[in-house]
Amino acid sequence: MHHAHIDKFSFMDSPVHRLDSRVKLLVALVFTAMVISLPGTSPGILACYAIGPFTILVLGKIPLRFAFKQVLLVSPFVLVLALSCPLYDKTPVMAAFGPWLGRITVGWMRCFTIIAKFIVTMLALMALVSTTRFSDLLAALQRLGVPKVLIVQLGFLYRYIFVLIDSAHHILRARESRRLRNLGFKAELKIAASMLGSLFIRSIDTAYRINLAMQGRGFDGKWRSLSKLQIRSCDVFFALTAVSFMLALQFFIKPVLQ
Amino acid sequence: MHMANELLSIPVAAGTLAIAGAGVGLVCRKVRRVVTSDKLALMGILGAFVFAAQMVNFQLPAMPGTSGHLVGAVLLAIILGPHLGTIVISSIVIVQCLIFQDGGLLALGCNIINLALAPSYLGYFLYKIATAGPFNSVRVYIGSVLACIIAVEAGAILVPIQAALSGVLAVPFSTFLITMIGVHLLVGTIEGMVTVAVLGYLKQVRPDVLVNALPGNVRLSRKAVLVTLAVFTLVAGAGLSLLACDLPDGLEWTYAERPDDPDFETIVSNNDSAIKAVDNFQSKYALLPDYSRRNSALGETGNNEMAEAEVSAGWTSFAGVVGSAITMAVIWVTAWLLRKKTVTANCDAKG
Fold it and tell me: Could you give the CA distance from residue A253 to residue A255 in angstroms, rounded to a whole number?
């Protein structure tokens, strides 16, 4: 069964895709930290920060509609948090935006800031994930010091999520094709429990077979991978550009726009 | 939905990332010697199982049109043991952040603490305490429901605390805390019921799974249990004491003071000089009167009538923590004094 997973674009090719994944990960982290630590008053500076992920997405040939749709999918919790600000903080303040001058409350300003920061940081995360293969990301994490057990676990998890989601789809479809009416909470709970239980047992049996197959091919617990991470000149260039972009925003443009 | 970046400030994010990193690193190091290569596939598969299991929905009893689903964290901890459970759930949280963007990069530390470290260990401990002794299916079931509720609540309580520490909350802390506790009570109950149902199914079909026959179940020391309970008491003492209401409680309301009726005369008036002397002594030497700072030096009577000195939150928390520590010290000393004197066999080498 074909799954539309989020990192389907990570197998394309572009200058961004060819960058070293450690550099991309660290730049994304530092960028997120800088955006979050901005004291929230001006939308202008946030718009300037948004140029960064936007450029990466465009250079990496990721469709922008896809990126924004993903951001929308994960936004409900933050929207609730953001919309609660105007309800609780009603001190009025004068706000100017270009030719418009008006009186809104501090709560609304905080709301806009939270939503804007969320969009910018999520775009940065999208830029990272859509342009990096998960195995490269894992290799980067391992080189940066994440324990081996966790890396191996993440690798297996990623590999088998889609296999098990397929199994779950089969079970659910079998249930739907036998469902005539709603049987009430207790019966439905029992049925759901037996579906989960059989999925669990199927998982354990699959794991046992996979383990036998790996042992039969000489797996001894050490994870050997072919991808060699190398820092090349394009990675250095990218890192320097990103750092100077953020420094410029922090020290030159922010005092002007704030 | 997991915590987003916007709920945190940089110091708190860095701190929680460090704590989560250290915690998971410790667990990995501990597990590295125990886990052999054949368990690695199992752990990966069970992580994927949790993902797949989150797709199975069932109709909720009271609310038509809504459906609930299994979160699965406590089930993993019960079956795999807390260490392996923590690793598997941390990996799930990381994948959810990176691949499904559920939760921000900076909030990864918080999410790992709230969803993997705290609920696994708490849920496992409570389950073990509830099901100690001979296997009794009723106790297993009740133990797992309680373990699920408390584990889910622990994670839910930590979210407002982390957000408040970051200073980004617009809503009042107590409102946020109570909302989270309330909602997750329902979530925890449903989770507990589904976990119980799955455990029941497994008992019928594969009972060997339930009696800790799955590989990778590590035994926990009693010291670990005590340390966890101590930490939890500290957190509860510091955190929950802030919510403690300073209006008079039921008994005081009956006889001593009524805040809405300033002219209320106390019903009880006791002019016995001995009682007055004891009261005086107590107010002179109480360390933290009324759970806040003394406003006179130790040994003197202050005027503690409606101390207008504002009770800063720091002192209330301090009082909570100190009170817990003193209580625990008293309990420990009492237990030590009451310990059973073990009879040491005296082998006299006579003959």
Answer: 6
